[in-house]
Design brief:
The structure is a single chain. The chain has about 100 residues and is an alpha/beta fold. The chain has a single domain, classed as 2-Layer Sandwich (Barnase, Chain D), CATH 3.30.370.10. Helices cover about 40% and strands about 20% of the residues. The chain has three helices and three strands. Strands 1-2-3 form a three-stranded parallel β-sheet, covered by helices on one side. α3 links the parallel β2 and β3. α2 packs parallel to α3. It is globular.
Amino acid sequence: MYPGLKDEPIKQRWLDFSECKHPLELHNIIREKLELPEGYGCNLDALWDSITGMMYVPAEVTIVYRPEKNSQWVREYVEEVVSIFQEAREQYDEIIVQVVME
């Protein structure tokens, strides 16, 4: 068990953004893998709200992307997504975040 996490099973989530060409594709993966409702807003504010209010916790989230394969725009957006997960981890201590750059 990780320090600070509830005594509930940790749900593992794998977000693979390595083939994404547009930020909307990232949000579609997020919605599917985090099991968010169809009404998920597909933007960074909705991501924050979902992580801190709708997503099952405790959770271990692994974010995968390929910087050399993704466009600059997508790389920057992935960095913002990672930042939001890390901030949620710091504030709520129920999320573990790992980033894998292949």
